[in-house]
Amino acid sequence: MHFTNAAEKLRIGQPTLSYQMKTLEDEQCKLVFANFESAKEVPSKSFQFECG
Q: If we measure between CA atoms, which residue out of 6, 11, 33 comes closest to residue 21?
C-alpha cells in the first residue's frame, strides 16, 4: 500500500517504483558483499545474507 501511495506522489506507476526499489536493493547487496570480500579479517562466526 505504501508503494502505491509513493508512486502516485511521484507520478509513476507502482510496478515502475517496485522495479526501481528492487534494483537499488540488488546494487546495495553487491556493495555489501564486495566489502566483505575485500575485508582482511573474517569473523569466526559465519553470517548468512539473503539478497533479492
A: 6
Do 39 and 29 touch, CB atoms closer than 8 A? no
pLDDT digits (tens, 9 = 90+) for 1-52: 687 898 899 999 999 999 998 999 988 888 887 777 766 555 555 656 666 5
Query: Angle 49-52-12 (CA atoms, 0-180°, nearest 5)?
Result: 145
**Closest to 16 (Cα-Cα) out of 4, 2, 1:** 4
Assessment of whether the complete model's pTM goes beyond 0.70:
no
Q: Find out whether 18 and 3 touch, Cβ atoms under 8 Å.
A: yes
The 3-state DSSP class for residue 48 equals coil
